[in-house]
Automatic annotation (TrEMBL):
Family: Belongs to the D-isomer specific 2-hydroxyacid dehydrogenase family.
GO cellular component, one term: cytosol
Native species: Halobacillus faecis
Pfam families: 2-Hacid_dh (PF00389), 2-Hacid_dh_C (PF02826)
InterPro entries the UniProt entry points to: D-isomer_2-hydroxyacid_DH, D-isomer_2_OHA_DH_cat_dom, D-isomer_DH_CS1, D-isomer_DH_NAD-bd, NAD(P)-bd_dom_sf
Organism superkingdom: Bacteria
Name of the featured protein: D-glycerate dehydrogenase
Stored SUPFAM superfamilies: Formate/glycerate dehydrogenase catalytic domain-like, NAD(P)-binding Rossmann-fold domains
MF GO annotations: glyoxylate reductase (NADPH) activity; hydroxypyruvate reductase [NAD(P)H] activity; NAD binding
Every D-isomer specific 2-hydroxyacid dehydrogenase catalytic domain range: 6-320
UniProtKB keywords: Oxidoreductase
Entry keyword annotation includes Oxidoreductase: yes
């Protein structure tokens, strides 16, 4: 029997991919770093039965409609805003993603980003490297406390809950806003539900972990930043487009908020000339929320397992909801 042809849009380690060659005829884009170009992606989608994609690939109607033999897209991310799920559903193309395996890793990074932002860690490291540390002084690089403060988590999914657990360990008061209430999280972590506006007004750290949808696009806009406290920080580890970056920049330079920790940007990679990056109050990371070797390997394996299950007619492990 011929094996189903699968195209992986980035070079993944042989040690991960090789075991799956028994079941799949695997072809890979040969760069680890650079995403596959649009034209090549179109061609590969047309000549493959399955795709294993990264969040950098826009799997839109244009790609899906011309891919006559394609029956599954395994997206190697928990977020799947890069995939036109509706069109895929209409065409009978299955979509999977990689929840759970990255929850704790992403929560670690999110909380670390909050800490780095509040305690000015990146700035402090640069201070020494730039040979500026000549004296110790009482308020040198003084930041803001984390313990005893209020964290406001917007998007209380798996990662939101994992961040809330870390916040509890740090003695924070926990507010959350979500489409639906989470009674178990309220009971086990002691998180309290708040309306979006109330959360913005009360939180010292507003942490965005909501998926990007038509409803959440630019939900952090001028209005939202104006409601936040002047001493509060904004942290984003979900998707850049949940934020109106111009409004965020204005909020920071006008001192409406104290600063921001950003792992994601509307345009990725963000230009190094972007005005936000010139603000000392902004800590920025290149979308590394789930980037540990252990977790990235698990995400790769889960995507491959989904492909194998699909072609063997078994239930998908993690279809998109
Ligand atoms: C995801 O899985 O959606 C993350 O953003 C990738 O790090």
């Amino acid at each position: 029997m011929t094996k189903p042809k699968v195209f992986i849009t980035r070079r993944l380690p042989d040690e991960i991919v090789d075991p799956y060659k028994e079941h799949l005829d695997i072809h890979m884009w040969q760069s680890e770093e650079e995403p596959v170009g649009r034209q090549m992606l179109m061609e590969k989608a047309r000549s493959s039965h399955g795709l294993l994609t990264m969040l950098t690939e826009k799997i839109d109607e244009g790609i899906l409609r011309q891919a006559n033999d394609l029956s599954i897209v395994a997206n190697m991310a928990v977020g799947y805003d890069n995939v036109d799920v509706k069109t895929a559903e209409n065409l009978g193309i299955a979509i999977t993603h990689t929840p759970d395996v990255l929850t704790e890793t992403t929560a670690d990074l999110t909380f670390g980003l909050l800490m780095a932002t509040a305690r000015r860690m990146i700035e402090a490291s640069q201070y020494i490297k730039d040979n500026k540390w000549e004296h110790w002084s009482p308020l040198m690089l003084a930041g803001t406390d984390i313990h005893g403060k209020t964290i406001g988590i917007v998007g209380m999914g798996r990662i939101g809950e994992a961040v809330a657990k870390r916040a509890k360990g740090f003695g924070m008061n926990i507010l959350y806003y979500n489409r639906s209430r989470k009674p178990e999280a309220e009971e086990s972590i002691g998180a309290s539900y708040a309306d979006f506006e109330v959360l913005l007004e009360q939180a010292d750290y507003v942490v965005c972990l909501t998926p990007l949808t038509d409803q959440t696009k630019h939900m952090f806009n001028k209005d939202a930043f104006q409601k936040m406290k002047k001493e509060a920080f904004f942290i984003n580890a979900s998707r850049g487009a949940t934020v109106d970056e111009e409004a965020l920049y204005e909020a920071i330079v006008n001192k409406n908020i104290a600063g921001a920790g950003l792992d994601v940007f509307e345009q990725e990679p963000i230009s190094s000339q972007h005005p936000l990056l010139a603000c000392p109050e902004v800590v920025c990371l290149p979308h590394i929320g789930s980037a540990t070797k252990e977790t990235r390997y698990k995400m790769m394996q889960l995507s491959l397992e989904n492909l194998v299950n699909h072609f063997q007619g078994k239930p998908l492990l993690t279809p998109v909801p």
